[in-house]
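anyone seen this seq b4? input:
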Amino acid sequence: GEIYRVTGKDEMQYESCGNKTGDVIIQDTVVISGVTFKVSAIAEKAFKNNKDVTSVKIGSNVKAIGAEAFCGCSKLKTVVLGNNVTSIGNNAFFNCHFSSITLPKHINRIGWYAFESCYRLRNIYCYAESQPSGWSDDWKGDYCRATVHWGYKGE
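predicted toks r here
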């Protein structure tokens, strides 16, 4: 099953998807022994090379997506980021197969090649008006041909 790790007084990190298949929802909170923890991050390599997950909806408390978190998830066709994501790690979505993604307005860091080899990715909708200074110059990757739509308003 899924694995979480306590990272603070009331926070947890999503460590591993285990043998999850199909649609995955990363919850806003997890309750353990009567204590509620916010799920505030997705660990590096949490889903790496999972060939069975087809969609991921990331909860609103998640701020960081670790490096290679979804790398090699070749059947991943839908990703919905929570509105409070501020950081996406290097190679986070390398070789995933979704066709579009919306990047919330609070993202101030994207590592290199976050969307490398996402050959089906056609559209990246960014609430930012232009590329934030904290984004790597190579944030899309060399083999990502997606059109970036800056100043997206959620139409």
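The CA atoms of residues 4 and 114 lie 23 Å apart. DSSP finds no helices and 13 strands in the chain. kinda curious what u guys think
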